[in-house]
Amino acid sequence: MSRRCELTGKGNQTGHRVSHSNIKTKHVFVANLINVTLQSEALKRSVKLRISANALRSVEHRGGLDAFLAKASNDELSKKALALKKELAKKSEAVAA
């Protein structure tokens, strides 16, 4: 399992640690990922995802998982999140019809 957020696509970054004497050593800045269970109101079920702490704040700010996925672009979502987004789209089309 890669260390990548399933909603925003954030992953590890590389760079240097720079000491006081300006010695540069390679360093990996690891993404702050957490395992969460989010409720989907449209699907009436919970979904387990591994997302970054920043993505969790974004989900809460946009008004829940359903609203976040509606606005999210497809290229940054994982396969699991993309399938969830398509399932939400089908559900909203069925309700509208």
Characterise this structure:
The protein is an alpha+beta fold and 97 residues long. It has a single domain (13-96), classed as Ribosomal protein L28/L24 (Ribosomal Protein L24e, Chain: T). It is 36% helix and 29% strand. It is built from 3 helices and 4 strands. It has helices at residues 53-62, 65-71, 79-96; strands spanning 13-18, 24-29, 33-40, 45-52. The strands form 2 sheets. The protein has a two-stranded antiparallel sheet. A hairpin with a 4-residue loop joins strand 3 and strand 4. The model has no long low-confidence stretch (mean pLDDT 93).
Main features:
alpha+beta, Ribosomal Protein L24e, Chain: T, two-stranded antiparallel sheet, 3 helices, 4 strands, 29% strand, elongated
Topology at a glance:
Elements lengths: L12 E6 L5 E6 L3 E8 L4 E8 H10 L2 H7 L7 H18 L1
Antiparallel strand pairs: 1-2, 3-4
